[in-house]
Design brief:
One of its GO terms (molecular function) is DNA-binding transcription factor activity. Pfam families: MarR. This is DNA-binding MarR family transcriptional regulator. The two termini are 32 Å apart. This protein has a domain of 101 residues: Arc Repressor Mutant, subunit A (Orthogonal Bundle). A hairpin with a 2-residue loop joins strand 4 and strand 5. The strands form two sheets. A three-stranded antiparallel sheet has the order 3-5-4. The chain has a two-stranded antiparallel sheet with strand order 1-2. Helix 1 packs antiparallel against helix 6. By secondary structure, the protein is α+β, with helices and mostly antiparallel strands.
Length: 156
């Protein structure tokens, strides 16, 4: 039996997982909108997160980006290569360990910070709409618990 959720009908097979089904739909739409907004800046999803980390931390080893962005080596390598080709980041040998590579934002990368911050604000505005601040706080708390649950489930 299917139940209505918003404007979508919950498939009967998802009846025992309505929260998971709702998360799947919401995440898909959020990623789609983020991708659209990033395309306007000439970026792909995830590249803005890499730049944000570099802006906060300064030059970092590529291995740190793998950990911080919770990704794999091949994905981060491709992302860094694309950003480097676009002139937004640069790679250099780590002076403390010649085997390691440091990644840093370039002047061009720093120059798009305001645009990315504006894009992130637009994404947030579209995401939360007119949800009242107290409900936003409750939503953030619930999402933090969902994340903790999923982290625990992936570790077991």
């Amino acid at each position: 039996m299917s139940r209505e959720r918003g404007t979508r009908k919950l498939p009967s097979a998802a009846g025992r997982g309505p929260v998971s089904h709702a998360l799947f739909r919401v995440v898909r739409l959020h990623r789609m909108l983020a991708g659209h907004l990033l395309r306007d800046l000439g970026l792909h999803r995830g590249q803005e997160l890499l730049l944000m980390h570099l802006w906060d931390s300064g030059p970092v080893r590529q291995t740190e980006l793998i950990e911080v962005l919770d990704s794999d080596s091949a994905t981060i390598t491709r992302m860094v290569q694309r950003l480097e080709k676009a002139g937004l980041v640069e790679r250099s040998p780590d002076p403390r360990d010649g085997r390691a590579t440091l990644v840093s934002s370039t002047a061009e990368g720093d120059a798009i910070r305001a645009e990315i911050e504006r894009m992130w604000h637009d994404l947030e505005s579209s995401t939360v709409g007119d949800i009242p601040p107290t409900t936003r706080t409750a939503l953030l708390d619930a999402l933090a618990q969902v994340e903790a649950n999923l982290v625990a489930a992936t570790r077991s």
